Amino acid sequence: MENIYNLSPLPLLAWLQSFDTPQVCLSVDVGHAHLMTQRGGSAPQVWLNQASALLGHVHLCDNDCTSDQHLTPGEGTIHWPEVLRSLQHVPAEAWLAAEVKPATLPSARGWIGSLS
After folding, report:
1. What's the confidence (pLDDT) of residue 45?
2. What does the pLDDT average to over 8-17?
3. Which 3 state secondary structure label does DSSP give 57?
4. Which of 32, 50, 68, 114 has its CA at 20 to 30 Å from residue 11's CA atom?
């Protein structure tokens, strides 16, 4: 289950826990979470921190809080230092996906490479 228009991870997490199986997990789209902060939603790092063991997938993209732009991280207004700190605590099995436009894949690859 991916966050889209959700303000908080708690209802989704409760629903996912009701399945009682590791095959059903949460996909956190940091861009979607960032967009929803304009409506009082939780910041992306809050989603990552609260998802803990139920996190299976993370979409890494940026935006300027006007639309789901799929910008390369660092090109929008997401506060990446906090998101990156939260990513250090996600389960090792969780997939990280750069969800960007095809033309910006080289810059996304460069951003990821700069993290190591």
Report:
1. 97
2. 96
3. strand
4. 68
The percent helix, strand, coil of the chain (3-state, each to 5) is 45, 15, 40
Mean pLDDT for 33-57 is: 96
1 within some domain: no
**Sheet harboring 55-60: ordered strands across?**
26-29, 55-60, 95-98
Q: Would residue 116 count as lying in a domain?
A: no
**pLDDT digit string, tens, across residues 28-38:** 999 999 999 99
Per the CB < 8 A criterion, the answer to whether 32 and 3 are in contact is yes
- Give domain status of residue 110, yes or no: no
Query: What is the number of domains present in the chain?
Result: 1
Domain region containing 27: 10-102
**Residue 93 carries which DSSP code?**
T
**Domain contains 107:** no
Rounded CA gap, 11 and 26, in Å? 11
